[in-house]
Batch of 4 targets.
Target 1
Amino acid sequence: MVWIPEGSFEMGSDHHYPEEAPAHRVAVGGFWIDRTPVTNAQFQKFVKATGYVTLAERPADPADYPGALPELLAPASIVFVPPPGPIGTGDPYRWWQYLPGACWRHPEGPGSSIRMREHHPVVHVAHGDAAAYAAWAGKQLPSEAEWERAARGGREAGEFAWGDELHPGGRPMANTFQGDFPHHNSLLDGWERTSPVGAFPANGYGLLDMIGNVWEWTDDWYGGHAATGDQPEGCCRQQASIDPGSQHGNQPRKVVKGGSFLCAPSYCRRYRPAARMAQGIDTSTCHMGFRCIVRG
């Protein structure tokens, strides 16, 4: 783990997606944070020690999804399946598929495996799965502010964690999507899906893969990015995170950070420390992982 000293920083951004605003000053205590996202090898050790079964490996409770078709209650997770040709970017359901059998052991569904990917980030972990691992390891999931402070690597200026250019000197600094999203990835960075942790340069704190590769869970309920601290508390904040009009329906949502191998300039410019997204706690995907902290 890497020590992040206490201090303050400007969190959020006024220049990108509206949910990142307003930029505001935040003070954070010191904490230790995993140098890399939790890997398949690390998660496998946890599963072997505890017998833990992830959400994607369990059938869904019909009571939680009244009226759902029986086949949609089978153990499954969400996988990116690139379309054969250009389709535009207006309908995400054209490249996301809910695949029975997809889970952390089988990232692309039945027939795939994590063999030779032991040092890639574990994926298909829901928030509860990440929290269970953290508790077993004697750690916690970071708050959004802790995660963002760590991702900035000591920098405040600059659009990206490393400066003002996405690919300085033509060099990819993180695992993102290059080419024509969603159908053609040019593989400029060398990776179609996840990459092994450490394939790209560390940030100013020595942390790897804070940007790109996989989205990372935080432990904060999703809500307005307000500077005043006037957000609801406890269960009220959980309730406030629900947006029935979103793809997550009536499920509470947590903040995820960092972007992933599917973030592309033409579609999702969330490969920046300030970027944030809401993710339902009942959802796991092929581009969602996590890392842990220990507070000082």
Target 2
Amino acid sequence: MVKLGEQIMLKTNTHSLTKDLVGNKLQCISCHLKGSDDKPGTASGIGTFVDTATAFPAYSKREKTVQTLQNRINNCFMRSMDGKRPIVDTEASIAMATYITWLSTGKTINLNEKRPCGPSNSERWAKNIKKFTKIQKKAKHTNYTNGKKLFTQKCISCHGVQGQGIASFPPLWGKDKTNHSLSYNTGAGMSKLNKGAAWVQSNMPLYQGDSLSNQEAADIMLYVNAQPRADFDLKKGLQTNNNMGYYNSKVLEEKHSVRSNFKALGLDIDKIRGDKKIK
């Protein structure tokens, strides 16, 4: 089960157990990066899987319930994977949780009552979200144009000029020839201007984490997340009642768009971009 979970993490959008649940071209390793052992989620930056299992069950402000590790993993399919939520206790769900739990072998249980996040980066994550919230609230069109410039300088060699991704490197926005989304939707953590910047500063450019300044990370994600991407509607991410199983959340309605994500920080997407191309 550990090996099966690892394979799903590596090939989420093509693995036989999960491909029908993924709506884009991402895999778990797109955000949970490989470490020196070449295993998914073992890199030390924000998003590491190492010691994550020690924090669960953990309270989630988003769902307003105590979440199991399987809950946390499965909910990612609706957001980062722009797909459907797997059913808890199915083979794929158990395998992914087993792999992440295996990475915490020997670690001390340290349940997190504040957020569903492992102890290695919990406080850093919270601190950086606050930091980038303050920075992004001050964003202007010049930050958008600077983000585009920085993206061209530091990001296109892996992610492409149009954010479409190159080879094994993940797409950041856009659609394929069949009009399907290539990347995460507006309900994903990466789509939030503060959370996306916190993750990018910690992990990017690849193997050069923490090399971007606060403003560079903020401007890059201002540019990336100002591009068109799929809206998020929680109800569409849940499978039909006959197939879904129990959804452990007190929040049953949630919608986001590029426009609403910017508005959440007091920003007008039209002014930031300098056009009216976002619906």
Target 3
Amino acid sequence: MIRSLALLTAALPLLASVAPASAAGPAVPRVPAGVAAGYAVFDRQTGRLTAHRDVHRRFRSASVVKIMIAIDYLESHRKIPDRDLALLKVMLRVSDDDAASAFWDRGGKGKIVERIARRLGLTDTAPPPADRPGFWGYTSLSALDMVRVYRYLLDRAEPRVSELILGHLRRAGQCGSDGFDQYFGIPRGVARPWAVKQGWSGYGLRPPVRCRPSSPSSPGTPGSLSLPVSSAAAPGPAASGRTAGAPAPAGPLSGVPVPAAPADAAAPAAPGSAPRVVPDYGRPVLHTTGLVGPKDRWIMVLLTAYPAGTSWQRSTSQITRLAREVHRSGTA
């Protein structure tokens, strides 16, 4: 009973109410067969969670955890050397793995995730399993917790922290440093303005065809994807995270009832709470997260996992269509 009350209390401080479904509203987003999806859209202007599905389901973080790595580093260092500013830039704009690994090692690896989970009140986030301490991409997180991370940056973090991180996410490049095209999901399915952090894991170490940027005059508009990876590889070290505004609602995280968490998925992260298994190990994952709309009105998070062997081209096509539908559902 005590544990149940604690979990319920932890789930409350996010929103003011859940927007009711409307019979005349947009259709429910269609998740493809065999795909696991957790998503959430939060309207900062109304204080409502306007679209949601499996918001407590834990996914393998892939590169989305880089936002937490950046927050932890910036909040523990008042003066940032130029070399670290350069590392933050490539880690956040083009999702550079070596930069993330450098901060991960210096920050104590999984202790970074433990600190952020406690500070931000994340209920579904946990560091990688104890036998894989160097794999930052094996961090567990949920759609709801990523909404909390963005709300923290928008409403509570020091300006020097939020402006640096969100400034880079507003300038996310089309081509990741590993050659993959990271303009899937929100960047191709939702009109600007947006600020995004993407994540992918399980598609091999390098694309067979490197990303070719679209015209710089029209970023974020639908275009051809140039990376038809043929099949998903089982997540190995490099593929899974390890290589060599609108008016803010009252209160820091004003409370809103959200869907109840499963008993085995909502334990608050704490030292020693890392899961014994990696979420969706052996399945490729693809995530698109960020801020959309004028004055950052909406926070949108879409996390997905695909059947083993799903190609990059098929995955990016499916998540882009789903992101378009989730956006339409949550912002109508």
Target 4
Amino acid sequence: MRDRTDRPGAPPPAAPPPDDGTAERPGHQAVGETAWTRVLTLIEQADEVALACHVSPDGDALGSMLAVGAVLRSLGKKVVASFGDRRFSVPRLLRFLPGQDLLVPPAAFPAEPELMITFDSSTLDRLGLLSVNAGKAREVVVIDHHPSNTGFGTVSLIDPDVAATAVLAEQLIYRLGGTLDRDVATCLYAGLVTDTGSFRHSSTTPAAHEMAARLVATGLRTDEIARELWDRSPFGYLKVLAAALDRVTLEDGLVWTSVTHLDRASYGLPYEEVEAIIDVIRRTDEAEVAVVLKEDDLGAWQVSTRSKGAVDVAAICTALGGGGHRSAAGFTSHDSVETTMNRIRALLPRKV
């Protein structure tokens, strides 16, 4: 298993080597060749590769992991994949992704992995139950694009200037000599479109569109993927959204609301179904920053924040134990809604 360029007689790649599209930016430092070479060597030498993504996985986390997992398996590697949620379940919106036969619950994940590769996780804590496994792993490769990444692994493939972790996953697949078939492309495309907000976010570069073109060329039905990701919800979601909108508050450039466990329990709505409420709240013209506090099944508040660009919400969330991007970040709070909001307000600029 070597870089495609040193495999005599290997078939030509399906597309030119992926370019992260940021080389023209002054001061940009892409992942160095030394790190890529080290990762390829570790994979070559490993008998088993254990893959993990962050808890409550989104399209970028799960899609990137499943894409790389499928390619590694096609190249003859023993692969296992998981995420560290106590209630292990793939979010409904992502159940269309191929390759989920690779997934095992955290209890079945190797206790002391020979090689563990993490996807889209900016901190060790974001691995949830699998943070213990990562702490005992011989080697941990961190693949991520969050500026707040703490570099907790033994090898890092971290580039905050790319649009999604899926971009780095595609580069790894190319370097492994893997095939970009329709199933792999579906997983990568889900990661790319979710993290760019269907190419609406400022993270969208020319290279992101070029990557999308490569993926679509494999025969993807982008309309079907979009329907699964954004155009489906159970009836109960509308009721919970209505409750969240009923208590929404606007104050000094900040709009916020909360979703309680009771809101969801009344309609049997799983936690992951309320993730998209922030996308409704953040549309408020009068607010620069949007916040949604969502009570999970264990009673903790999962806090999502969005900014229209003037406020760095990643800095705020990092100060509160979380992380993310300048315009989209989050953290976990074990305090009350009032206390949590006061902590956020104290870190906001005086004039939002």
